[in-house]
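Tokens for Aspartate kinase. Go.
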Amino acid sequence: MTHKLLIRLVDAEYAITRLNIGTPLPEWLMGPGFWTVSSSREEMTLVCRAARIPPGVQSSGGWRCLRIEQHFSFEVPGVLASVLNPLTEAGVGIFANSTFSTDYVFIMGSDLDKAVAALKAHGHDITS
């Protein structure tokens, strides 16, 4: 199933950060904009606005955030795929995160124009 989506380009640069398991959540993580913590047996991954990350923390900066503006029930298949597939076909690397209500797709800022063009070509509306 193909979904035509309204996707918002969030006006901030983001970073993806790696911390060791068991590290207390840093005070700089929480603040304006999207932020999240994922934990596995290997690592903790934090995503937040890049400007909040202090020097010396292992991170990958330069990410831009695309937010799917519609809300779908969990049973609706293909929502995230309708964004990821065009980006994959365009050669754009992604880092995806989901919340209860929607999905966030992070792309490198250097791929932004290519990503927007690919999403528009697949019928999505992009706003900022």
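Strands lie at 6-19, 36-39, 44-49, 59-68, 95-98, 103-108, 125-127.
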